[in-house]
Amino acid sequence: MDCDVLTLAGLWNSGPQHWQTRWEHKHPAWKRVPHRDWNNPACHEWVMELDAAIAGSEGPPLLVAHSLACVLVAQWAKSDSPLRIRGAFLVAPSDVDAPAYPIEVNGFGPMPLEKLPFPSIVVASSNDEYVSIARARQFAQAWGSKFVEVGPAGHINGESGYGEWPEGEAMLAQFCAALAKGE
Q: What is the mean pLDDT of residues 45-70?
């Protein structure tokens, strides 16, 4: 793939069986954006960490986010950072406005629903415990993102059986190629 990629793990980080971790092993040039506290993330702090990682990239990177990190990307887009990214591949965005969200929201809510100023794709599951398919579709529409429903895939993580996830990697490669062509 001809893209500088930054991966953004969600709440609790992405373990060894998660597709993000496996893709990083397969593509050693990709970098996971570090975060100080994966269990109790604070939005403002994480936005600053993301901004620093983008600043350290060779050029505008492609963000590959999962779960709460999708909300992070939307919050970063609102931060007035002068930095630019190529696009965002947003998988299983968590709904921080849902009453059953598992942690204190720490500045992530209310859910940002402003149009993103870069190309993006939202990939969602029809039975994700952290976002309903209707809300995921609403996020994609508000953000101006292409929407892809992958069927009943849980939270699209290692626990849901999405370790290697070659279909997702193919979607990402197509997205990267489209960005390279300026589509």
A: 96
